[in-house]
């Protein structure tokens, strides 16, 4: 081709392999894979559950009758389709993921996706070159390579959900620094502050304990499989996972500072409420004592008046019956 182009003074065309799409979806905080496997085995014959080497995923083979392809479902609320038609992916998500209760644990408000292109090439080693995943079908286990790339794609989709959650949290609290700057009152009730603190704790839990392991660490599956870990790391680098995590951590530090301010504000409000309650209780007690003393004073005054009246009666009686002295 290059010789012909030199003769014809034309530029050779860049080789572009025929590719298919693999797409990751994050739809929930976690999946119950036992429920999913049971549903696939008994209700959906078009999906065949394949044996896997790790317990944190379900490998599904899609029937050629509906277009074929593969789907890898992970416990962290993500699944990745390989060569599955878009319409069939939506059917799988609607019927098997979202339509089978309770596969989804804490569904996400917005579904995040991550795409990549892949191709098969018997003359190239399994790798990622540029934007394309190259799979050699003759290697001992192309399925393990797909799992590795799927893990990276799923991780990126999960990260997108967390990025959105943190952005929403920061947007809902962005007025607080300005209010503090101008010495104004934070317009949040005790219940709203507690909800904000709970929202941040839930986010940190998802970041650090997603699917029983830290989101920030390499999955245990790759510890004894360096070649698979390299596939996982390559797709992660391509999707800028580590820089995004670094940015996420910086934003999380800022969110933690805001949470500290909210906790202090809540503590001050609580202390102020207690102080006023104590003042009111003391005032009520003093009021009762004043009333009691006043009533006691009235009782004493009544007794004094009665004694004075009695003395006057005695004096009057003595003056009436006293003998007359004749001189």
From TrEMBL:
GO terms for cellular component: mitochondrion. Residues 71-249 form the DUF155 domain. Pfam families: DUF155. GO terms for biological process: positive regulation of mitochondrial translation. InterPro entries: DUF155, RMD1/Sad1-interacting. Belongs to the RMD1/sif2 family. This is DUF155 domain-containing protein. It comes from Syncephalastrum racemosum.
